[in-house]
Amino acid sequence: MSDRTILRISGPDARDFLQGLVSNDVRKLEQGLVYAAILTPQGKYRADFFLVPDGDTILMDIASSLAPGIKQTLTMYKLRSAVEIEETDITVTRGLGTPPEGAFADPRSDAMGWRAYNGHAGDADVDWDAVRVAAGVPESDIELTPESYILEMGFERLNGVDFKKGCFVGQEVVARMKHKTVLRKGLAQVAVEGEAPVGTDISVGEKPAGTLFTQAGGKALAYLRYDRATDDMQAGEAVVRYQPDS
User: Which of 45, 49, 62, 72 has CA 20 to 30 A from 158's CA?
Assistant: First the structure.
């Protein structure tokens, strides 16, 4: 995966340092990969990534486009913590089915297969967009943007947030959305006839209803206003249908 960067986070304070920043519980590294995000203090998405156990250190598997900014953010937050952050030349591969020896199950969904960091060959000719659309998994820089709230984007279902771990940056907003509000917008799988560019507005009549994102095999991921989502919406030249009970 040439679009991923692997950062190494090391030092005696590494786990405690990350525990106070990320949306998931770093202690879950004892069980394998941890999917998590770093948020703004206002609770909005900054980046999502996998944390990978690697002996006495932790690897961060992150979209290459987001890596420089998150490395800078981590450096800013570490203050006097005994933590080192460095970019590595480690590569990531992935495949479907049971993880081979040395690989890790993708914690977001069984359908997403496995990821490996030890040079293991990945599965060729997999349409990963189709896999993640079918599984309802958003992607960095596509569905996940700086305007996103992680609960609207399915992070609870994707095992990307822990409500019992204690404080992290943006935690108050996430907790309030979890316990005090009903989500009126969010990521959904829709049926789509025709094609439209990623980011095309979805409308019902003349009213905005959301945004169309990745499309594959007659299905797509869309960010929808649930009160306006129907089985007859328009996105450019494409017809979009939301049928949550189908």
Answer: 72
Instruction: Kindly list the domain boundaries of the chain, sorted by start residue.
Output: 4-179, 184-241
Instruction: Please say whether the beta carbons of 214 and 238 come within 8 A.
Output: no
Helix (H) or strand (E) holding 69: helix 67-78
Q: What is the pLDDT of residues 59-69, one digit of tens each?
A: 999 999 999 99
Q: Which of the four CATH numbers 3.30.1360.120, 3.40.50.2300, 3.90.1680.10, 3.30.830.10 does domain 4-179 have?
A: 3.30.1360.120
Hey, CA dihedral for 133, 137, 141, 146, is it positive or negative? positive
Cα distances (Å, whole numbers) of residue 138 to 53, 62, 194: 23, 14, 21
Q: Are 5 and 95 in contact (CB under 8 A)?
A: no
d(CA 87, CA 85): 7
Backbone angles phi, psi at 16, to 5 degrees: -65, -35
- The whole-model pTM stands at 0.94
Angle, vertex CA 230, rays to CA 224 and CA 235, nearest 5: 60
pLDDT digits (tens, 9 = 90+) for 139-192: 999 999 999 999 999 999 999 999 999 999 999 999 999 988 789 999 999 999
